[in-house]
Amino acid sequence: MAKPTIVEAFERAGQGHVFAFFDQLAPAAQKQLLADAAEIDLQEIDHLTRTLLAKDATTGLNLDGLAPAPYERLPEKGGDAKTWTAAKTAGEAALRVGRVAAFTVAGGQGTRLGYDGPKGTFPVTPIRKKTLFQVFAEKIRAVGVRYGKPLPWFIMTSHANHAATESFFAEHAFFGLDRGHVHFFRQGRMPAVDLQGKILLEDKGVIAMSPDGHGGSLRALDRSGALDLMDKAGIDILSYFQVDNPLVRGIDPAFIGWHVLRGSEMSSKMVPKAYAGEKVGHFCAQNGQAIVIEYSDLPKSYQEEIDPAIGALRYIAGSIAIHIFDTKFIRRMAVGGEGVALPFHRADKKIPTIDAAGNAVKPDKPNGVKFEMFVFDALPFAKNPVIIETRREDDFSPVKNADGLDSPRTCADDQLRQFTRWLKANGAAVPADTIGLPPFAIEVSPLFGYDEDSFADAWKKLSPKPEIKAGLYLQP
Length: 476
Ligand code: UTP
Prior knowledge:
Helix content is 30%, strand content 20%. The chain is an alpha+beta fold. The chain folds into two domains: 67-402, Alpha-Beta Complex (Spore Coat Polysaccharide Biosynthesis Protein SpsA, Chain A); 407-476, no CATH class. The strands form seven sheets. Strands 1, 2, 3, 4, 10, 11, 12, 13, 16 and 21 form a ten-stranded mixed beta sheet that branches. A three-stranded antiparallel beta sheet has the order 6-20-17, with helices on one face. The chain has a two-stranded antiparallel ribbon with strand order 5-9. Strand 3, helix 6 and strand 4 form a beta-alpha-beta unit. The chain is globular. It starts with a helix and ends with a strand. The mean pLDDT is 96.
């Protein structure tokens, strides 16, 4: 049989070893290997190897002229209350005319949580144990009802979890959403390479591939046809959030309004860092552009620097991975061009592989590199970016780890605190300790109230008011 052209291309690129065991494979496995290989952009891998793997490679981070990024403060922190009100009105108007869609990135591997299954299927609420996907679905449903326009929901999956994610929604009747409004698409993959840039095999016929990072969402939105669907539906505002954060106000009128009023192509939410070394990205400004610098890249002295004028951290603005994109901007980033592309970052990992004889190798130290793009790297390319402040307790409590910080436990507590705050703000007497936690579990369905305003409206209408006690579940 003649050698497939793709094999020749790999040989020319110095990656011929990927097909070293080709002749030993069954026809179906050969076909699969050829298909996987066809996903790989050999020029891109060559470029990444030369730039990111070279001995003298640096993070490319230049700190010249770095300053904290300006952001819009909350009214209670000195921001202009009138502009916040105008923003909310503008955001509500955009929702009423159907310009907005929700977007969840759910293609991650969720290694730290160590849960077997798509992370969105992980149960998180205090009483009903609703899954992350159910919480988002109910919030999106409720927003659609409030503004009289159902919102489309785009969900980015990975090759590994796509089928399981789709079946989960089908098994749960899409949590009451119109299934025509829920769109799943897979993100791209990148091969892992060894420290010399050779593509790693996981098995004789299997290339070690992994998702290309949440930044891969921009090109996946384009390639999958999601942007075309949005164009047809008159949607130009995409509200981006992560699958691991059930507290997020995924659709926030004031945030949408800031984005619209400023003619922004990409908007972001910040919270003041809880402490100097908090492991979040830092919103910075450089050469007139907004950028996010990961905590691992920003020198400690910057992370800890105090601004004497205010007696607080100078680089205070932490990124919590909540953004709004203009859909035309996504298209521009996805298509790319001279100097317009998200950079890749390298992550050194222990990657199970095989040796030249085909024997399994389980490394005990990093033996290879994965390449990932980060969505916040789009920020410097955006025109008129806006960064607004939000209260952490209203927007951010991710489930990242099995225990400790950012775990199911801390997230359930943060939900309990939120339900307690909403009840108290509306005159209900809820016992709570000094850190805002009630002595028992209660739960509010997003269909009853998904933010302060919707909760207040629903609570007002509720008659008689229920007794606040263990197990209280508020639903419509
Ligand atoms: P994380 O950075 O927390 O990564 O993703 P992760 O893969 O979920 O978890 P660990 O690091 O293996 O424990 C933040 C968000 O970005 C999404 C995740 O699904 C999550 O919503 N993500 C991450 C993607 O959609 N694709 C990726 O390639 C990476």
